Every structure is written in structure tokens, then in C-alpha cells.
Amino acid sequence: MPRSFGTASPWPPPGETVVAVEGGTSWDAVAAGQKLGLEALSILEGETARRPGPVIWDARRKPRIYFLVPPRSTIEVERFGCRLLSLGDYVAVPGALAIQPPGPHWLVPPDRADPERLGDPLLLASAIERVANARWATSFYASGHHLQVLADAAQLDGRACLRCNTTEPPLHPVGSGAAQDDAGVARPFDPVFCTSRLEPELMPKEASE
Q1: I need a labelling partner for 208 at 20 to 30 A (CA). Which of 169, 183, 188, 195 fits?
Q2: Beta-sheet strand order (sheet of 146-151)
Q3: How far apart are CA 91 and CA 23, in angstroms?
Q4: Model confidence at 5: pLDDT above 80
């Protein structure tokens, strides 16, 4: 018998098996579209030192990313095309060894040292909203380096650091940038960086003095 997770169904199932598990007891699941989910996960990994909580990728039929969060979480994500799955909803939960396709598998397996650790719903909601309202932007430098990030309106308008999103001055214009519009066309913008996020070879003279 697989070990239990609180009073829930098997957690996780053994080997590479897949079990349909009902939410709402030991966890709820936030289901996101593949593109939005992967981009939100990238943000979460940066904000949690690569400990975003368990995440499942199910690429069958209509690909979905499932973020497992505490049960009875209050998270408003429906307006971004996501769904909160709880009691009465089932998620295909992969076995502990299922960490690659085909079939449902773990993008981020449960923490072996802390198997009851789940994702932070507030951080997840913030990451989803940021992705939904952001655009991929690339900043180019004379040195030949480039940086690609998900940028929000403040970053694209030069009001926030392209790396950390702070609006605290001083902000330094560096290089040139291009961001995709709704039609996928690259539009120019002027990236700025806070002093703490400037690499030495990119730092303007006035910032290094």
C-alpha cells in the first residue's frame, strides 16, 4: 500500500503509476494552461529558491499544469483562464517515479524531506497575474549580451527595473529592448535597471562612481 498523505488518497502513488485523486482533503489544485503555467512556475521558482511546491504536468489532450496548494485556499485566478479544483474535482496524480513524459508527470515532485509542503496560494496568484499581464521582452547590450524576461507595463515604460521590478531610484537606462505586442510583433522599448541589478560590464559611468 502506498503511504497516505493526511486522510487523502495515496500520496503520491507508487512507482510510475497514475491515480485519479480527489482534491479538497489534503490539497486543492490550481489548473493552468500549459504556457501560462510554465511561465508562472518560472517566476515561482525564482521567488521561492526553487521550492514552489508540488507541480504536475499533464500534456494529454488539452495540456495543463497543476499547482498543489493547501485545501480550502482562497485564490482568485478564474479571470486568467485558470481553475481551482477542490472537493468533487479529480486530478491525475503521477507516481513518485514519474518525472518525465509520456503521461502525467511531476515538474516539481513533492519534497521528500517535507512531503506535506504545498505551494503558497498568494505567491501563485501573484505569479499568474504577472504572467497574464506581462509580455516577453529582450534587452540587448553593446557587449553582445542579452536578457529575456517577462516584463509588465511599468518595466516596458521604463518606470521599473527590468530585472527586479523595483521602482526605487536611481534607475539606469542600459542598452535597447524589444517586446512582443498582442500580434507577436517586436516593438522597441528602453530598458532600465536599478544599481544593484547592474552587472559590472553594463554599469553606466555615473553608477560606478
Answers
A1: 188
A2: 146-151, 135-140, 176-180, 186-189
A3: 7
A4: no
